[in-house]
Write a structure and sequence with these properties.
By secondary structure, this protein is an all-alpha fold. It has ten helices and no strands. The protein has two domains: 117 residues, no CATH class; 42 residues, no CATH class.
Length: 171
């Protein structure tokens, strides 16, 4: 979801940079978390804040940051309440890309709530996908049957000592 929200924030910035050249080169100021900004980006952010230009990009960035903070909610009821407040705030704003983002959040509402219940990310799936891609490379040219065998061998955590009976000591 954060990727979608970041896309909305960036679209707001891109539209605003046409009228406000001071935003040129400030893309990551609005897309990165404050603690991840480089020194140069921190200085750029301070310059923009001090200019007090009432930038739409800052409003979009606050929406992104607030969304991230919602995920720290201690329980499901608080999470749901904060998410609803966020949705109403963003869906009523004048920033079209952010309104579009809010509507997408609404379409995925049940999945977001389910995530809070499970708190599972897709890191395990990404790791498994990496193993499967390696199997595809190793089985190339041998067909589907060998690809399946290679995938099972790489991801099955098999103890081949039982099949071989021993490990050679020379290796």
């Amino acid at each position: 979801m954060l990727k979608i929200i970041n896309a909305g924030v960036d679209k707001v910035r891109r539209e605003e940079v046409k009228d406000n050249p001071i935003l040129k080169g400030a893309r990551y100021v609005f897309l990165k978390n404050t603690q991840n900004l480089t020194k140069k980006q921190q200085q750029k952010k301070q310059t923009l804040e001090l200019a007090n230009l009432n930038l739409k990009s800052f409003e979009a960035m606050r929406m992104r940051e607030t969304f991230q903070q919602i995920y720290q909610a201690p329980d499901m009821q608080t999470f749901k309440t904060l998410l609803q407040k966020w949705y109403h705030w963003v869906s009523k704003c004048t920033l079209a890309p952010m309104v579009k983002t809010a509507k997408m959040i609404k379409r995925h509402w049940s999945g977001i709530l389910q995530w809070k219940l499970s708190s599972i990310n897709n890191g395990i799936l990404e790791g498994l996908n990496s193993v499967i891609q390696a199997a595809k490379r190793k089985a190339r040219g041998y067909g589907k049957k060998h690809f399946k065998t290679m995938a099972y061998l790489l991801s099955g955590k098999l103890d081949l000592n039982r099949v071989n009976g021993f490990l050679p000591t020379c290796f």
